[in-house]
Amino acid sequence: MDARFTALLRPFLKPAGPGEITLTPDTDLRKLGVDSMQAIELLFAVEDTFGISLPDEELNDTTFATAGSLWNVIAAQLPAGAGDGTAGRETA
Amino acid sequence: MPDARYAPLDALPRTAPGAQVWAALGGAGLTAGAYRDRRPGTGIDPAGLADLLTAVDARFSVAATLSVSVQLATALPLLTTGRAPVARQALDGALAGRATLALAATDVTAGTDLTALRTELRIEDDALDVTGEKNWIANTTTAAHFLVLARHRPGRHFTHFTWVLVPADAPGVTVRPADSALFAASGAGHVTFDGVRLGRDHVLGRVGLGLPLFARHIGTERLAGAQWGVALCRRVLADTHRRLAGRPHGDGALWDRDAVRQRFAAGLLRVRALHALTVELADQVALRHDATAAATLKAAAGATVHHVLADCAQLWGAAGFTTGGIQELRAQAALFGIGGGADEVVLGTLADAAEDVLAALERPGTLP
Question: Which chain positions lie within coiled-coil regions (chain A) (predicted)?
Answer without folding.
Answer: none
